[in-house]
Amino acid sequence: MSTSAGFVPRSRHLIAGEWLEGPSTFRSEPARGEGFDYPVGTPELVNRACEAAEEAFATYGWTSREARAMFLDTIADEIEARADEITEVGTAESGLPEARLQGERGRTTGQLRLFAAHIRDGAHLDIRHDEALPDRKPLARPDLRMVQRPIGPVAVFGASNFPLAFSTAGGDTAAALAAGCPVVVKG
After folding, report:
1. Which domain holds residue 78?
2. CATH number at residue 60
3. What pLDDT sits at residue 30?
4. 117 vs 51, 79, 111, 145, 176, CA distance in Å?
């Protein structure tokens, strides 16, 4: 497979900023029938990723809302800067058409920027009440769906039909990062 200049698929596990090999690989390439070798994750690698996320939570979980918003915007900027590379690799790995992945890429960067704006504006910090029972006495029931503090590392399992928007960067991953929760992604 030819890739855009500057990008080489790693085919490794990225854990705590370090690229790690798996002990064995499997081969897959649905788009053109050529094969890519992917490392198999072991329980040890999964544990290492979870431990790294727990360590990161000690600091990332308490960063400012603005720092987290800037982080999300930076991820969106990087996705946009590497748009062609990401589309090419995503098409090869998933077999999805380029147009579909281009749209998904836009959705992903939109989700990242949406969560960045949401935490910047701080509306989630206001007390909310369940609108279903506005006359509940003595007080309206609080709406507990919005937690106002990070709860810890989050695991996200990737969906092959939406490899970007719901897995790698968008959706659950963006929401967790916005809340201050480190993420372990299984793409």
Report:
1. 15-125+149-186
2. 3.40.605.10
3. 67
4. 30, 18, 10, 19, 14
